[in-house]
Write a structure and sequence with these properties.
heterodimer; A: mainly alpha; elongated; B: mainly alpha; Sodium/glucose cotransporter; 0% strand; disordered N terminus
Chain lengths: 106, 557
Amino acid sequence: MSVEIYERLRVNPKFQELVVTRGRFAWTLTFIVLTLFYGFVLAVAYFPAVMGQPVSEGSMLTVGVAVELSLFIFFWLLSALYVRRANSEFDALTQEVIKQARKEDK
Amino acid sequence: MRCLTQLYNTLGLFALSAMAYAGPPVEGALEKQPTNWHAIIMFCIFVALSMGITYWASSRTKSTADFYTAGGGITGRQNGLAIAGDYMSAATLLGLTALVYGSGFDGYLYMLSFFAGWPIILFMMAERLRNLGRFTFSDITAFRLDEGSVRTMAAISSLTVVCFYLIAQMVGAGQLIKLLFGLDYNIAIIGVGILMMVYVTFGGMVATTWVQIIKACMLLTGGTLVMVLAFSQFGFSFTTLMEKATSVHKLGLKLMTPGGLLADPINAISLGLGLMFGTAGLPHILMRFFTVTDAKEARKSVLYASGFVAYFFNVIFIMGLCAIIIVGQNPDFFEGGVIGGKLIGGGNMVAMHLAKAVGGDMLLGFMAAVAFATILAVVSGLALAGASAISHDLYSRVIMKGKATEAAEIRVSKIATICLGIVAIILGILFEKQNVAFMVGLAFGVAAAGNFPVLILSMYWKGLTTRGALFAGYGGLFSAVAFVVMSKSVWVDVLGNKVALFPYSQPALFAMPLAFLLAYVFSKTDSSARAKREIDAFEDQYIRAQTGFGAAGASKH
């Protein structure tokens, strides 16, 4: 776990690629979740009547409940998307970077 | 009707109390129920099973890694269940069902706020936590900052969170057990305290994890069963259910329209922030990330946990709506048989009455046992997190400066667990008649403003120095406590003043930015040589956070 290994990891262009791609992906997803969630909270605070409208004429499902159910599902799907990509693509890249740094150690 | 109106008016406060326990208002409602044998027998089965696991776990708990993190060998799915078990307290089942029963849409909205923190934890924190931490989250803040002072600070705010959360859970547990099992309050508190001490001291994280996994499975199964049985009475049709519910509920068609919970946007945002980032700063939740083998499993555990939590919240939503008709229209569940009067056992008994209505005494007994198991699992997780702050952070790293032997450290953590258990029992008994709702708000507020800013900055901001971290940590801790003390739940409800000095129920919107600001100002103006070393050390920490290279691995058995 020497300092030189960390240095070799850092200069590896693949490491930069990993950090940039994963960082951008994670921040985008975070931004989507925060925007939708706080947007919805504010919409509930400012337009409660709209949230109480039925989704269609005579339906018992209101806009608010429908949006909420879809947010539950959508947020979880985003999580699944992140885990899928991180556990395959990003982890493979990480392993490769570490392997290269180890090899140069010998 | 009066009870419902009251519930509706104090929704914000109620919502907070719902987080930790099914806190019935302290007045009335707490008379002892006849001893419930079905519940006691099922609970004994659970205790016997968990004792068996503790016995098995004790033979596998030898090193500090075993004690704090179950050797780091828990799989993502197991940990996901355990996190869900840690997160969904008896409140989730009882308090939130009651919230949906009383106010429909608002209850659902509250659950979404409770859920929305998980994706953020996954995207921003899960893998860095696993890559940098070992036993407690202060391992991360102390990675490049001055170990002694930063760990002391983290331990103080962890213990603050743990103590307040423990009191809320204990008081809730005592009242709940009195209601469900017909046991005496003090006996219930002592029982919970002793069982918790046994699980944690003998079985450490291995036993705690398995108690949580079993409890999560019981909760998911029991909830689903009640939901399916209740929903079948409406032919599994949401339309039929809603038509009937809106026709009998006092809110009528407004049942599915936003009510009072988030009417004030500032309070709404503050509550959202407090729930979201409070979750990301709770020491017993953060600790769970160190029990898995690597970052991959850490990510999976969040995915499983959030899936279970989201599923269960929707089950509760349906349960609450079904209860409006099945419980709300049945005179047997009201005192004196008056429909719309006071529910027997108080407003939080909705889920239990529903279980009895659809599944008889057997199902009621099972759900009561689930509620008790839930409380036990949550207090065990809390006690372990508190004990690790004392033994790992304070004793081993700060006082002994890393020179303590593993055996000594484990001994200290066991003593700490027993002390915490005794403190929890005493405080639980002392606070029996108090309204403890504010303590949960305080726990989440301190977690969001005291723990979270320092933790996230130490992982993301190169410029953070020890000085900045200390000001942010203590500043967040004290301002969160001060805001809660000045808010309605303490200033008016506990101290008896007329008007609250701080108009919102959650301090997060104000205390969190303050902590970030303090961190920024006092790091930027820190020109000491130590600060420079700390900033230089960020690079290595950053590489380890990103790649997991050098991270603590799973111990071999």
